[in-house]
């Protein structure tokens, strides 16, 4: 495991910024249902779950990399009110302000309720398959586009489609790069990005091909991303 990959999750311990606020409002605010799978969760998965844990029954975290799952398990073990206050106080305050967390809920109650809803934290290569159980929502944040070609992307999308309950939803975002830079190539080499790099039209085509309906795609660009933009 390349240490650079692990460091990319460290942003969760930095002050809340405008890009993350948008992601909470436009992506994670849409998560609701009984069983929710965060696919390619990284160890940031628990952080993002702060915004939707109240609206779900069970949370499943799957990631391709063993290191991410190890770190995620360590964070779960340390998730006390003091840990949340020390590391995520500004995020919790923001989520309460926009009503993604009950404004009256204590930090202790947040920790207890979030932990009670985590059912599985496991290593899983979602390019190969997904478990037989089905989900109301599959979340994918900058994960499923890390593929080599159309065949791999179609397979990932089909695996997710088959793992959704009737009326289930795939909610996520992908990062699109405008041109292949040295940094982007390093991400591809580490399987943190993919050669495919679909644009908005291509992404819709792939989704439709695998049976997805009611597709809504929004392109969001931030100056801080430089060569890259988000599709949500």
CATH superfamily: Vaccinia Virus protein VP39
Shape: globular
CATH topology: Rossmann fold
- The number of domains is 1
Compact overview of the structure:
With 232 residues, the protein is α/β, with parallel strands linked by helices. The chain has nine helices and seven strands.
Descriptive overview:
The longest helix is centred in the middle third of the chain and has 17 residues, at 81-97. The chain has 232 residues and is α/β, with parallel strands linked by helices. Helix content is 38%, strand content 21%. It has one domain (21-231): Vaccinia Virus protein VP39 (Rossmann fold, 3-Layer(aba) Sandwich). The radius of gyration is 17 Å and the shape is globular. The relative contact order is 0.15. The chain has helices at 3-7, 18-26, 45-49, 66-77, 81-97, 107-116, 150-162, 182-189, 200-209; strands at 33-39, 56-63, 118-123, 135-141, 164-177, 219-220, 228-231.
Structural topology:
Blueprint: H1 3-7, H2 18-26, E1 33-39, H3 45-49, E2 56-63, H4 66-77, H5 81-97, H6 107-116, E3 118-123, E4 135-141, H7 150-162, E5 164-177, H8 182-189, H9 200-209, E6 219-220, E7 228-231
Parallel strand pairs: 1-2, 1-4, 2-3, 4-5
Antiparallel strand pairs: 5-7, 6-7
């Amino acid at each position: 495991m390349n240490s650079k990959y692990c460091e990319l999750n460290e942003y969760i311990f930095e002050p809340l910024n405008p890009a993350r606020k948008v992601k909470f409002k436009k992506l994670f605010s849409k998560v609701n249902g009984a069983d929710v799978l965060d696919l390619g969760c990284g160890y940031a998965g628990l952080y993002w779950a702060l915004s939707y844990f109240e609206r779900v029954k069970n949370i499943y975290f799957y990631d391709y990399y063993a290191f991410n799952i190890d770190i995620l398990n360590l964070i779960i073990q340390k998730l006390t009110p003091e840990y949340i206050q020390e590391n995520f106080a500004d995020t919790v305050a923001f989520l309460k302000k926009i009503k993604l967390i009950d404004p009256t809920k204590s930090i202790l109650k947040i920790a207890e309720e979030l932990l009670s809803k985590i059912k599985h934290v496991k290593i899983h290569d979602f390019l190969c398959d997904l478990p037989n159980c089905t989900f109301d929502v599959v979340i994918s944040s900058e994960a499923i586009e890390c593929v080599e070609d159309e065949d791999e992307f179609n397979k990932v999308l089909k695996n997710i489609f088959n793992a959704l309950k009737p009326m289930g939803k795939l909610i996520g975002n992908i990062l699109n790069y405008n041109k292949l830079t040295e940094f982007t190539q390093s991400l591809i080499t580490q399987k943190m990005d993919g050669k495919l790099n679909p644009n908005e039209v291509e992404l819709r085509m792939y989704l439709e091909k695998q049976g997805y309906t009611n597709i809504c795609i929004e392109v969001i660009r931030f100056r801080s991303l430089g060569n890259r933009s988000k599709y949500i």
